[in-house]
């Protein structure tokens, strides 16, 4: 506190009754009144103008009120009300110097301001000094009488007046002792009190109920200054600890806390100016309300700009803050305590209400930070859950057990984090976010569980696919009586190996038995679908399989050695066996046989197709067992090839294999004809005996032998060129004539050709080498195997490549047009690329020599 500044008087109300708010605020701040709580006293002085009031106050309290210059005469110096703080008086004492009454400046009738300022002083002061001249005591026309009347009248306008000490200061005391003066004065006061009109409630109320009347006297300041000063010092002692019990203001009531003093004064003056009755209790509540509001607002502002709070708020944006609740609780506590400290002297009900409002404002301010903290904790809990679940699952624990263990630890940690984040001032409920964390964990668990189950299922499916797909295909390749039994055995063996392992893996998920059994059952269905799909796939290629089977049997003997058609073989029987084998294969492919129930499909097919009851013209629908789309013993869903499809397949099969049989027959004929050209054995013996000498001559002379060989070649070339066989078809004589006529030109032709060949040989060698190089590439491309319909790894496909029937592709255009070419048949997409692309070895095997080849061509 700046004492000099505090002692400097400030105008609280100007002469016009305007409240000097700003100056007063500055004074309050300089005097440090606001922090005094209830420990302060307010003293005011009223009395006639120029009665030495300011002089007394300055002497008594060390203040600096303006005094009238004694040498310039008596005129009004104090206008309105001035305020200053007493120097060296404890507790803090504020003193108000009021404008003098009955002043000439305002005129006789203008007493409104006097009354208002008197009421104002009574309303806010604990002690009122009534300054009066000693010679006015007991006088009927005393100057202070109207003043006292005014004081008592306005007192009635306070609903619940404070108990105010009225200290009468008798100035310029005479030799009459105070003991004699005081009773006279009290009598005067009582008379005035009695004469004042009072409300009914206070009609008989004694003056002592409202006022504590005390009297003191001082010598004249002008004449006995020394004595005056001494006695003023004695009087000053009475103002020390004035608010303590027994002190000058020990009985005071309804004190406004110092921080609300200025506001309260302003409001009181406002009410007085409006000429309303002053309800001090209500006023006190109003002041408390306003002041508590101000304090709460101020403390809230302090919190928002609190560096510690701002740091905490920033920190929580980027991540969880350790001991968040402790730190935040401390910050909130500091500001709430500040409020409590300042608002403590105000009306309790108001104070408490405003505290609640401040608290809820503060909590609203800090709650987003708390929510942010919870969000971090939520994220952290989920991350921890994910990591821990991974680790626990990898340790080999069952999935459900891992989930239980990890969930519990994650939720415990989250709960712990929440408990550390809450503050004691708030009952923040984090059960909702706990529920969210629980849901996060459940969602993640569900996703992981689905993915793990799907992974398990896919793994088991892959195993089943590997275990069933290729073996089933291989079984269909070698389709026979036991194919479906083998497939059933394979299915049983593999599912019994894989499904229990799958079931065991499922146990870690602790599913309901119905669910796990459903999954196992689905897997079993999947295994069945693998087999069924493979069967459907192979059934789609049944014609190709049948032809392969046919070729296998037809072109190979019992030891699987490729057959050489010498003419001794029974082609009909072999063809029938081959067709029978193909038909058996067809019967295997017609239906899926999951049960062991025997069926008559093979018998029906054999009796109707193989034994010839089905002709190209067909039979009547009523007697044809194949004129149907279902098999008797087979459910439609297990039917792969319907009876009617079998029938048309068989027709196609027969058409496409007919060529192979024809080829075999032709080969046999060619073979027979080739063997028939040799002379009979007896002729050969006769030649050997009769020509023995000539043979020996030839053998002894190599030149003869060479010439004989050259002659043979020439004759052979002539025979080929002249086509001897054809020439002699019309008889021997026409043949001889025709041959003789053509002999010389043909001979010349041969010689010219030989000579020309010799010349061109050199050129051709180079050109041939280039063209060979160019052709190698496309040939290689041509010889690429066609899109495989069977697995290249399959031994069957290898066998097929080795023993394919003669391809129509290399034959002459005439022959190709005449033959029922496989390439022109409906199944050409299956057979012809393979036939045309197969290597030439089997063809060479069935072409013993050029002659037989010619014979073969002519048959076909
Ligand atoms: N006779 C006498 N005169 C005094 C006394 N004290 C002061 N005075 C004189 O009275 C005159 C007025 O003094 P102030 O202290 O200004 O009086 P005041 O009551 O404050 O005057 P206003 O504020 O104008 O009403 C001055 O000239 C003082 O010297 C006193 O005890 N006795």
From TrEMBL:
Residues where GTP binds:
47-54
Q: Where is the composition biased (Polar residues)?
A: 851-860
GB1/RHD3-type G domain residues: 37-252
In terms of SUPFAM superfamilies, this protein maps to: P-loop containing nucleoside triphosphate hydrolases (SSF52540)
GO biological process terms, semicolon-separated = endoplasmic reticulum membrane fusion
Q: How does it sit in the membrane?
A: Multi-pass membrane protein
HAMAP family in alphabetical order: Sey1 (MF_03109)
State the name under which the record lists this protein: Protein ROOT HAIR DEFECTIVE 3 homolog
């Amino acid at each position: 506190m700046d004492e000099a500044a505090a002692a400097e008087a400030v105008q609280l109300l100007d002469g016009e009754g305007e409240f000097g708010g700003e100056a007063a605020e500055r004074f309050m701040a300089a005097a440090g009144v606001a922090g005094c709580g209830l420990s302060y006293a307010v003293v005011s002085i009223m009395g006639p103008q120029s009665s030495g009031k300011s002089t007394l106050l300055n002497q008594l309290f060390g203040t600096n009120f303006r005094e009238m210059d004694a040498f310039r005469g008596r005129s009004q110096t104090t206008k309105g009300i001035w305020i200053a703080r007493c120097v060296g008086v404890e507790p803090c004492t504020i003193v108000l110097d009021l404008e003098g009454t009955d002043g000439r400046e305002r005129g006789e009738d203008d007493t409104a301001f006097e009354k208002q300022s008197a009421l104002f002083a009574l309303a806010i002061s604990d002690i009122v000094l009534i300054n009066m001249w000693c010679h006015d005591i007991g006088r009927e026309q005393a100057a202070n009488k109207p003043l006292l009347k005014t004081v008592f009248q306005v007192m009635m306008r306070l609903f619940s007046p404070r108990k105010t000490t009225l200290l009468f200061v008798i100035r310029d005391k005479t030799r009459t002792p105070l003991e004699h003066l005081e009773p006279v004065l009290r009598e005067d006061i009582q008379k005035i009190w009695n004469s004042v009109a009072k409300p009914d409630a206070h009609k008989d109320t004694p003056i002592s109920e409202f006022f504590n009347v005390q009297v003191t006297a001082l010598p004249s300041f002008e004449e006995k200054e020394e004595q005056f000063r001494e006695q003023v010092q004695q009087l000053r002692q009475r103002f020390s600890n004035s608010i303590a019990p027994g002190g000058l203001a020990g009985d005071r009531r309804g004190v406004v806390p110092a921080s609300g003093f200025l506001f309260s004064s302003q409001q009181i003056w406002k009410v007085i100016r409006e000429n309303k009755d002053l309800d001090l209790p209500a006023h006190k509540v109003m002041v408390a309300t306003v002041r508590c509001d101000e304090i709460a607002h101020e403390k809230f502002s302090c919190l928002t700009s609190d560096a510690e709070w701002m740091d905490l708020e920033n920190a929580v944006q980027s991540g969880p803050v350790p001991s968040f609740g402790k730190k935040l609780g401390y910050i909130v506590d500091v500001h709430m305590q500040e409020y409590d400290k300042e608002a403590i002297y105000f009306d309790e009900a108001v104070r408490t209400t405003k505290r609640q409002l401040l608290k809820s404002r503060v909590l609203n301010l800090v709650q987003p930070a708390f929510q942010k903290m919870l969000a971090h904790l939520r994220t952290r809990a989920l991350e921890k859950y994910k990591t821990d679940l991974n680790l626990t699952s990898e340790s080999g624990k069952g999935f459900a057990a891992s989930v239980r263990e990890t969930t519990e630890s994650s939720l415990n940690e989250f709960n712990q984090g929440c408990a550390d984040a809450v503050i004691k001032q708030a009952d923040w409920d984090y059960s909702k976010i706990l529920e969210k964390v629980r849901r996060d964990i459940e969602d993640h668990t569900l996703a992981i569980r689905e993915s793990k189950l799907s992974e398990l299922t896919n793994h088991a499916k892959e195993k089943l696919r590997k275990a069933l797909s290729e073996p089933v295909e291989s079984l269909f390749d070698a389709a026979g009586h036991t194919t479906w039994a083998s497939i059933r055995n394979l299915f049983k063996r593999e599912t019994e190996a894989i499904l229990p392992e799958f079931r065991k893996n499922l146990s870690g998920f602790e599913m309901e038995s119905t669910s796990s059994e459903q999954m196992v059952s689905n897997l079993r269905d999947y295994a069945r679908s693998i087999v069924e799909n493979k069967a459907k796939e192979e059934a789609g290629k049944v014609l190709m399989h049948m032809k392969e089977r046919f070729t296998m049997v037809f072109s190979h003997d019992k030891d699987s050695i490729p057959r050489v058609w010498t003419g001794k073989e029974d082609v009909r029987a072999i063809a029938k066996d081959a067709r029978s084998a193909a038909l058996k294969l067809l019967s295997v492919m017609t239906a899926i046989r999951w049960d062991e129930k025997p069926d008559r499909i093979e018998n029906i097919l054999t009796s109707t197709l193989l034994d010839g009851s089905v002709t190209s013209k067909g039979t009547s629908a009523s007697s044809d067992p194949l004129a149907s789309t279902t098999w008797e013993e087979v459910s439609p869903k297990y039917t792969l090839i319907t009876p009617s499809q079998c029938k048309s397949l068989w027709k196609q099969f027969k058409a496409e294999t007919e060529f192979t049989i024809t080829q075999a027959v032709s080969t046999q004929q060619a073979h027979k004809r080739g063997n028939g050209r040799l002379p009979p054995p007896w002729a050969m013996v006769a030649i050997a005996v009769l020509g023995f000498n000539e043979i020996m001559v030839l053998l002894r002379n190599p030149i003869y032998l060479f010439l004989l060989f050259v002659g043979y070649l020439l004759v052979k070339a002539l025979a080929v060129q002249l086509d001897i066989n054809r020439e002699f078809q019309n008889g021997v004589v026409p043949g001889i004539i025709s041959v003789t006529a053509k002999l010389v030109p043909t001979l010349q032709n041969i010689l010219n050709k030989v000579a020309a060949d010799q010349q061109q040989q050199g050129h051709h060698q180079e050109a041939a080498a280039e063209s060979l190089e160019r052709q190698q590439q496309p040939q290689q491309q041509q010889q690429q195997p066609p899109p495989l319909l069977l697995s290249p790894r399959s031994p069957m496909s290898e066998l097929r490549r080795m023993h394919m029937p003669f391809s129509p592709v290399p034959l002459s255009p005439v022959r190709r047009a005449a033959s029922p070419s496989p390439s022109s048949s409906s199944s050409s997409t299956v057979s012809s690329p393979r036939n045309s692309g197969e290597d030439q070895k089997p063809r060479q095997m069935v072409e013993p020599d050029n002659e037989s080849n010619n014979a073969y061509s002519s048959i076909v």
